[in-house]
Amino acid sequence: MLMNISYNWLRELTGARLTAGELRERLTTAGLEVEAVHEAGDDFVLEIAVSSNRPDLLSHLGVAREVCTLAGGEVRWPEMRAAREEGRTESFTSVEVEAADLCPRFTARVVRGVRIAPSPAWLVARLQAIGQRPINNVADITNYVMLELGQPLHAFDLEKLNERRLVIRRARAGERLTTLDGVERELDAEMLVIADAARAVAIAGVMGGAETEISGATEDVLIEAAHFAPASVRRTSRALGLQTEASDRFERGIDYEGQLRAQARAAALITELAGGTATTDAIDVYPQPLTPPLVPLRFARVRELTSLDVPPEDSIRILGALGIELAGANGAGRSAADAGGQGAASEATFVSPSWRADIRIEEDLVEEVGRHFGYDKVSDTLPAANVAGEYGAHEGRRREARRALNACGFDEALTYSFIDTAHDEQFELLPGLVRRAGESSLVTLNNPIIEGAARMRPTLLAALLESARHNFNHGTRDVRLFELGRVFAAGVEAGDQPRETEACALVATGVATEEGHAGASRELDFYDLKGALEAALAAMNVSSVEFAATSARHLREGQAAQILLAGNAAGVLGRLADDVAAVYKFKQPIYVAEVDFTSLLAAGETSVRYAPLARFPGVVRDASLVADRRVTFAEMRRAVLELNLEQVRRVTLVYVYEGERVPEGQRSMTLRIEYRADDRTLRDQEVDELHGRIVNTLEEKFGAQLKR
Fold it and tell me: Is residue 144 within 8 Å of residue 255, measured between CB atoms?
């Protein structure tokens, strides 16, 4: 998300004398990517790319802390005291929170006797410089404070609230509300609303309602500042298709101790610019105050993780400038100046500030110290090691599988581990992956980074098919991709950690080039995909794999096979079903496979033994048999090998034919059998006898007829 930061505004908060260009370089070096700097009248605007774990940077105050840490100095807090104060808030309104799980904190304050008018020129210019549209003085002040301190606010016309009170509750199913953009929206029972005594007047954390908005006739204003659960706001925003500046901040997590401060700042500006008298206090419904986590730091870890030689006192100074204070005896924060001899200790404990939800473990503190001490000071030499490098377990077999698939014309893909929940019922998952029933069997992100990617993938195929579609959209019709990666499912019991399994998936479509032919001669088919998978298995020395006809929800009936490892299901392959192909708008046959790679690695390797080259020649005989089309080559091959004839060395498939001169429901299969003895050259009579025995067995067992 991009945040526009006013250079002049930043200087007011920091007193820094760096130019806009210097700020860009220093902030970017410290890990805050400033994408651009452009002029805006007598100001400059810095466009900062804010990552999802740094919601504090969606405010000028948050960036000011970074600037003060880089350039020295302290943040200059703006005026927080209203020009005129009288009366207590509870004399004019009341607040009731019914859904405390979705609204941990809610505050309200009243300003009476305001005059609604256009904002002064300086406020209009400042908002316009960073892309905000001015509305009126009160509405502009709430936006200004949000951009300054990071806390979204909303102003209600107090007289328009039924019984002059607010109730924070879940919406009633089918309840309707017309929002400030003039759109009537239907709510569901999982959405949080701010209501008065009669109806919903705002969608909590997203947008206010039109019926209680500030107008030219407004005299008394109720200012609300709250802390809403990020997951609730995100769900509501996505369900309604309504994304706002407020929802962007609530979704990422705001400062849970900043409500009263922002409210006081808004009251001070309103009494200054719109007149009126503010109440002396605020209603603050905060039943279970949140406790900031304590994070230990061993100062030696800074060097171990970054190679930077940072003295402990510098680490304390940097963290203190960012508002990450040393913990006192009672767990409360204390500044670096009050630390005394703490800086000389080998470790210390810090209090994670309420506005930094990303500071939870020791490595988070190391990152803060490292980026402000200077990433440019990181050594470019490799760290010393006491042991020689070596491959991880099974890494050699993974490498051989990759090489084999590359040799078959497949390119390796690396896709995101998060996919859309729309794929939940689309694919047959790996056997044994899911051990719970229903949607709870899958892993859902409460606050996904990418919109529409809230599911930790239970299959590799969804993203791999998206990659195939991407290739199609760019004119590449011949696609062969594979991916080795982890898939996820919920733990067996509620509260268990998610289960992870390594999988291998393949996608193939387009035309094939036969050996010895200059150009493409045919389309890829089921057997090309099966052959590529068999080549990878052979490279891994896995031999106990068989294939059997099956059905799967994402595969076309009659063109699907189950992959069996030592008799146990390990995956499926086949042609993509028409209904699934239609979702991706594929107009040519797509063949896919997915196999449990963890099981393949656990199966162990087939022993490879040396054997001398045969001293005596072999004899090859073909047998063409007509049998029911449901009879497979694997079944015939198994029947031959079960005869345990020492001289039978190999059984392969030569050709399958269906059509003219073959009865309906049957097909002709040609098997090639190689005979050889180790101690002599076989005579024709011996081969005839062996071959006849095999043919008789196949005729009896499968009702086959030998083609003459």
Answer: no
Question: Within a 13 Å sphere around the CA of 512, how many CA atoms are in the beta-carbon half?
Answer: 18
- HSE value, Cβ hemisphere, 13 Å, CA-based, for 38: 9
User: Both tokens of residue 143?
Assistant: 């936006």
Q: Which residues, other chains included, contact 375 with Cβ-Cβ below 8 Å and sequence gap of 6+? A: 29, 30, 31
Sequence-ordered strand ranges (E) for 218-299: 221-227, 277-278, 283-285, 294-298
281 and 189 in one domain? yes
**Rounded to whole angstroms, how far apart are CA atoms 377 and 144?**
38
* Rounded-to-integer distance, Cα 487 and Cα 495, Å: 19
pLDDT digits (tens, 9 = 90+) for 642-666: 999 999 999 999 988 988 889 999 9
Q: How many CA atoms lie within 13 A of 645 on its CB side?
A: 25
Final residue before a domain boundary, out of 71, 100, 120:
71
Cα(254)–Cα(655) distance, rounded to whole angstroms?
Answer: 68
Residue 180 is encoded by which pair of tokens?
């400030």
The answer to whether residues 101 and 235 belong to one domain is yes
Question: Which residue has tokens 């690695």?
Answer: 601
Residue 595: predicted pLDDT: 97
Q: What is the DSSP letter of 436?
A: S
pLDDT of 518: 59
Quote the CA–CA distance of 62 and 55 in Å, as a whole number.
9
* Alpha-helical runs (H) found in 426-574: 461-473, 526-539
Most distant CA pair in the chain: distance in Å? Answer: 117
Q: How many structural domains compose the chain?
A: 5
Query: What is the reported pLDDT for 543?
Result: 82
Q: Which amino acid is at 26?
A: R
User: What pLDDT is attached to residue 341?
Assistant: 44
Where does a domain end: 376, 406, 437? 376
Can you give the CATH number for the domain in which 276 is found?
3.50.40.10
At residue 437, the pLDDT reads 64
Query: Is-contact 169 99, C-beta < 8 A?
Result: yes
Q: Which two tokens stand for residue 155?
A: 């102003």
> What local confidence, expressed as pLDDT, does residue 343 receive?
43
pLDDT lower than 50: segments of the chain: 329, 336-337, 339-343
Helix (H) or strand (E) holding 693: helix 684-702
pLDDT of res. 384: 67
Burial class (CB in 10 A: 0-12, 13-18, 19+), 448: middle
* φ, ψ at 626 (rounded to 5°): -100, 125
State residue 342's pLDDT score: 47
Shared domain check, 475 and 330: no
Record the pTM: 0.67
Strand partners, 555: 576
Residues 96 and 155 in one domain: yes
> Does 613 map to a domain?
no
Q: Which residues pair with 369 in a beta bridge?
A: none
Q: Map 311-337 to HEC letters.
A: CHHHHHHHHHHCCCEEECCCCCEECHH
How far is the C-alpha of 443 from the C-alpha of 154, rounded, in Å? Answer: 35
Print the domain residue range for 114: 89-285
CATH number at residue 49: 3.30.56.10
Determine how many CB atoms are found less than 10 A away from the CB of residue 488: 18
Say if residues 297 and 366 touch (Cβ distance below 8 Å): yes
Strand 411-412 and strand 479-489: pairing? parallel
